[in-house]
Amino acid sequence: MSERPFLQVVKGDATPEEIAALIAVVSARSAGAPAAPARRPSAWTDRSRLVRRPLRPGPGAWRASALPG
Q: What is the secondary structure of 32-47 as a DSSP string?
């Protein structure tokens, strides 16, 4: 089975050193840094807890005051 070359010079006359430098740069760019996993903020530091619906007095209002909206 014949494999296709990874890199092919279409125009010009590149030296082996230039091709090696190009491959090194392309390989380094494709590797990149691993993406950090997305972290959810802690429920204690989440500022959206400060924004809530107004409290309504009535039966069961004490229970509704602590439930998320």
A: -PPPPPP-PPPTTT-G
CB atoms within 10 A of CB 19: 13
Q: How many residues in total does the chain contain?
A: 69
pLDDT in tens, 3-13: 776 667 788 88
How many angstroms separate the CA atoms of 29 and 26, rounded?
5
Q: Which of 5, 39, 42, 3 is nearest to 22 (CA)?
A: 5
d(CA 26, CA 21): 9
pTM score over 0.70: no
Separation CA 31–CA 24 (nearest Å): 11
Instruction: Please provide the DSSP assignment of 44-65 as one string.
Output: TT-GGGG--PPP--STTHHHHT
Which residue carries 């740069």 as its tokens? 25
